[in-house]
Specification:
The structure is a single chain. By secondary structure, the protein is mostly helical. The protein is 59% helix and 0% strand. The protein is elongated, with a radius of gyration of 17 Å.
């Protein structure tokens, strides 16, 4: 397995739980209602048990004014970092293909 720099992207749920929710001063129940989702869905996100889907990214982007791409990019960075730690690429040769 390849190891990269010590930077480890955060799960979007951690950002919601540690930064956004406290700044809002809003209960988890009220946030779930505002987003049009169940409390359990919100708890699963905050607990980092589920990924941010495109549909959820749209909801979060609208609610917080930072757009769906922000949330999708956070999730993609987290997922790619995790995969980099889990997938062994050592047996895959680098093929010289012109990709542009």
């Amino acid at each position: 397995m390849q190891k990269h720099a010590s930077f480890s992207p955060l799960h979007p749920g951690e950002i919601l739980r540690e930064d956004i929710l406290p700044a809002l001063g809003m209960s988890k129940t009220k946030l779930a209602e505002s987003l049009g989702i169940s409390r359990q869905t919100l708890y699963d996100i905050l607990g980092e048990r589920v990924s941010i889907t495109p549909q959820m990214a749209l909801r979060l982007g609208k609610a917080f004014g930072n757009g769906a791409r922000f949330w999708i990019n956070l999730q993609n960075a987290f997922d790619l970092h995790k995969a980099t730690e889990e997938v062994d690429l050592s047996a895959i040769p680098a093929l010289a293909a012109a990709i542009s």
